[in-house]
Design goal:
Blueprint (H helix, E strand, L loop, with lengths): L8 E2 L3 E11 L4 E11 L11 E6 L7 E7 L9 E2 L4 E7 L6 E7 L2 E6 L2 E6 L6 E5 L7 E7 L2 E6 L5 E5 L7 E6 L7 E5 L2 E5 L5 E5 L7 E6 L5 E7 L2 E6 L3 E6 L6 E7 L6 E5 L2 E6 L4 E7 L5 E7 L3 H6 L1 E3 L2 E5 L3 E6 L5
Antiparallel strand pairs: 1-6, 2-3, 2-5, 4-5, 7-30, 8-9, 9-10, 10-11, 12-13, 13-14, 14-15, 16-17, 17-18, 18-19, 20-21, 21-22, 22-23, 24-25, 25-26, 26-27, 28-29, 29-30
Length: about 325
């Protein structure tokens, strides 16, 4: 979630019973509200199971604090929207240029799309640093950054491509490998890369030698696996029917540790801020899951519109960037008046 984003509004977070007390610096206003089974709408980031303290704003005169005390162990989740942010610029791809994945690091945005890999400046210009296009670089479906390397999945026979991106103006392909079936998504963890191969499950590749990626094994959860995401050694693999299989991949193995069922055909799964997002309806909606104190993954809320913007949105300072079907957008988060 963005820090210092004062104009972000929030969608829905449910608790059984809660008391909210908030103070806004400079206004001298205190508010207290108590409800049962209600939807909380603060304007910032809230986390925690019992008592949570949050800070808004890194702009002078706009710092706010609030505390939430819940009588249950149901967590309060942050689902911010960018409705109050000022759009700075929008960049649109050419026809057929669907964008599939985005990562931001430092001053660069890395975008994987049907026309290839694009590295763009993370500033209001969205100026292009470089791109990899043409035969062998089309139909890119996912990107995962790890150190100075970018691992990209694509729908061609060589479905895993490794780039050296230490110099964003001139990314260098280090290696690629033949993959078992189409590659729909990718996630890197240490010297291992996990690729979603549809009905062929999840391919595990050793990339300790990035010039020669080597297939190690196949994980067969069943069904059609189209999306993967990793958070602190936990692999989430999304099946098209809405099931997400969870594996502990620390130590190089893949021990099953549970699964969740979103109850609908999914588009994508992604870990964000420790929570598991399951997108549906072309990315417009999402179910959000969180691990409870018993280490079970439970559904804690839903995003009912613009879910893809929340999920793919990344921040750099007071600016935010996000992608749509064929657009990249830059926003400025401004302090509230």
């Amino acid at each position: 979630m963005p820090n210092g984003v004062d104009n972000c509004r929030t969608a829905t977070a449910w608790v059984t019973s809660a008391t909210r007390t908030s103070t806004e610096t400079g206004s001298g206003t205190n508010t207290t509200a108590t409800n049962t089974t209600r939807s909380l709408e603060p304007t910032g980031t809230e986390t925690g199971y019992a008592t949570s303290t949050l800070m808004w704003g890194e702009f002078p005169g706009t710092t706010k604090t609030a505390s939430i005390t819940a009588n249950t162990q149901i967590p309060i989740i942050p689902i911010s929207t960018w409705n109050g942010a000022k759009k700075l610029v929008r960049w649109t791809t050419a026809s057929g240029g669907k964008l599939n994945d985005m990562q931001i690091r430092g001053q660069e945005i890395y975008i994987a799309g049907m026309q290839g890999l694009r590295i763009t400046a993370a500033d209001p210009s969205l100026g292009m640093h470089s791109e990899a296009r043409g035969p062998g670089y089309t139909a890119m479906t996912g990107i995962s950054l790890n150190g100075n390397k970018a691992f990209v999945s694509r729908l061609g026979l060589h479905g895993l491509v490794v780039f050296d991106v230490r110099t964003p103006a001139s990314p260098l392909e280090l290696g690629r490998t033949f993959t078992f079936g189409a590659s729909w998504d990718v996630a890197a963890y240490g010297d291992r890369v996990y690729v979603a191969h549809g009905i062929l499950g999840i391919g595990v590749y050793d990339v300790s030698d990035p010039q020669n990626p080597v297939w190690i094994r196949q994980i067969w959860p069943g069904g059609r696996i189209e999306t993967v995401s990793i958070h602190r050694g936990l692999l989430g693999a999304g099946r098209k029917n809405g099931r997400v299989y969870l594996y502990d991949i620390r130590g190089g193995e893949h021990e099953p540790v549970g699964e969740v069922n979103a109850g609908w055909a999914l588009d994508r799964v992604e870990f964000k801020d420790g929570r598991l997002w399951v997108l549906r309806n072309n990315g417009n909606a999402a179910a959000v899951f969180e691990q409870n104190p018993e280490r079970e993954w439970v559904k804690v809320g839903e995003v009912t519109n613009e879910a893809i913007r929340h999920l793919f949105g990344r921040t750099s300072g007071a600016r935010g960037y996000t992608i749509g079907r064929n657009t990249v957008e830059a926003y400025m988060f401004e302090p509230a008046n």
